[in-house]
Specification:
mainly alpha
């Protein structure tokens, strides 16, 4: 395992995490831009699985956990993952190899659980929203 191998998983996730957190902080300081298009499903009147995630992130960046949970019940967990991704990448880089955590991310059961959680959150949004 070399540092070059970290560019396959850790570094891309860290970049995405930094981008999401930076956008949430910027949107919390100003507002969510109106030029961001709606998801294709939203355009036809159906809530998408991530509807409310941006507002959830903005609420978390503003320190409002209750509002974040109302906008999207998985928002705080995804926000925490976005915060953790750069930390995991930095620690992996310093150690010169992958953490055991990244091996956990390769298990199919974890991704099945994530898919089920998003499906349940989407079902909630279809009923509530």
């Amino acid at each position: 395992m070399t540092r070059r191998d970290l560019f396959r998983l850790e570094i891309p996730f860290a970049a995405i995490g930094i981008g999401l957190i930076a956008a949430a902080i910027a949107f919390a300081a100003t507002s969510i831009p109106t030029w961001i298009p709606d998801a294709p499903l939203v355009r036809i009147g159906v809530s998408s699985p991530v509807t409310g995630m941006t507002r959830s992130f903005v609420a978390l960046a503003s320190g409002d956990l209750g509002a974040a949970l109302r906008w999207h019940p998985l928002g705080p967990l995804v926000f925490a993952a976005a915060l953790a991704a750069p930390v995991v990448a930095a620690v992996s880089w310093v150690r010169g190899g992958r953490l055991a955590l990244t091996r956990v991310l390769r298990h199919r059961s974890l991704w099945i659980a994530v898919a089920v959680a998003f499906t349940l959150a989407w079902a909630r949004q279809l009923v509530v929203l």
